[in-house]
Write a structure and sequence with these properties.
Mean pLDDT: 95
Number of strands: 4
Shape: globular
Radius of gyration: 13 Å
Distance between the termini: 29 Å
Low-confidence stretches: none
Structural class: alpha+beta
Order of helices and strands: HEEHEE
Largest sheet: 2 strands, antiparallel
Amino acid sequence: RLFAGPIRRALVVRDKGCAFPLCDRPARWCDAHHIVSWLDGGPTSVANGVLLCRHHHRLIHHGEWTVRLGNDDLPDFIPPPHVDPAQHPRRNLYHQRT
């Protein structure tokens, strides 16, 4: 249920820090979040995980934002309609990806 060892390291390599749009928090300050809840049968895997700082982790759990992996396996965040009526996916461009 916990993201540890190689899975955590793979998330750090992929996300570089909090993956939420415009967040600059480094990976060491982040929790790994199950995109599909572990309680709902979601696996503890890179394909079902994303790094989030505590603030954005709470926002995803208690807010109206959702997260998914895009076709390129990078996290996309879908805002609620009151933020963006078209609900265009957003990404964190702060962390440089190679």
